[in-house]
Amino acid sequence: MVRIPRSTRIALLAAASTILAQGQSGPASAEQDAQKERTNFHDVMSAEARSPQLCLSRPNRAYVTHRYGSSCMAYFVTSGHQAQRQAVVFIDGDISGDRYDKRASDPDGNLTTRQRAQKIADKFKVRVIVISRMGIDGSSGNHGSRRRPVELMAITETLDVIKSRLGLDRVVLAGQSGGSTIAASLLTLGRKDISCAVLGSGAYALNDMLATSAIAKGRKPNREMLAKTVYDPTRNIATIHADPKRRVFVLGDPQDARTPFAQQKAFAAAIAARGHTAELLEVLASGPLHHGATAYTLPVAALCAADAPSERIRKGILKHKGHEIERRNKVKSALLTVAR
Fold first, then answer.
1. Which of 39, 71, 63, 240 is nearest to 150 (CA)?
2. Contacts of 162 (CB under 8 A, 6+ apart)
3. CA nearest 69: which of 154, 136, 155, 132?
4. pTM to 2 decimals?
5. In angstroms, rounded to a whole number, what is the distance separating the alpha carbons of residues 172 and 170?
6. Domain residue limits, the chain
7. Which residues does residue 175 pair with via DSSP β-bridges, in sequence order?
8. pLDDT tens-digit series, residues 127-168
9. What is the pLDDT of residues 243-281, one digit of tens each?
10. CATH code, 6-308
């Protein structure tokens, strides 16, 4: 069981009180967007979240209790290398509304992510665990509550259960987008079992992001309310456990149109300024928004689990970027040929 620092416990309790108050009197204006987003999703597996028997009747489920209630969380473990006492733990990004119905009703998780995890496990000879986000891929809850303290606490408790079941001592965290936000937040809980963290395309100053979004929509953000409602990893850096052997790699694309590269750069710098080993690595993320970084984060996490030197990791990223540039040039050339 991980002991959460007192200052972090106070922040989580404040968030819990604020969320309960909102449930009684309605959300504050700065929270209107987040509350509206939550209603676009729905609670799933509510019975399993309340019953250990129902939850554990399914394979690869963890029934966990936390200050916000209880959850039934799903996870996937790659085959092979069962004797290893360290594993890569991957947390994927948020799900948009157009993909939500399928992912919310799928009890077995994202097949594509599972297949990618197994390929990484086979190639680098490591164990990879994928923890499903709240409200999708077999986990209970409402996906509209993602990135809030309730999801963070459910995942940190789930990680403890998985470690106990699989006989793990240490973990390497890896994330994509919102999953990186969760991974960064796990660091700030003061966990002492994280040997490396690889954070791809994450958002780390959530309060600033939500405030900026509110301003863009002509609303006045209530920053005090946001600070009490959203768990912001940037505001909790002080509680990261000091470990001279741990490495943190923050991966980002300067052209990322979904999560600000400036935030990623600032987060890496803020961690390093407190004496932690952390660095920012630029990638060529996939997709029209230049946001998909999983093709980098999982291999880097596997290399980190194998205790590969940081220089080898940097060279690996440069090599992958070179392949990606070559691939994109071929696509452009083919499109130009068709256009003619």
1. 71
2. 62, 75, 77, 89, 129, 131, 168
3. 154
4. 0.86
5. 7
6. 6-308, 313-340
7. 91, 199
8. 999 999 999 889 999 877 777 889 999 999 999 999 999 999
9. 999 999 999 999 999 999 999 999 999 999 999 999 999
10. 3.40.50.1820
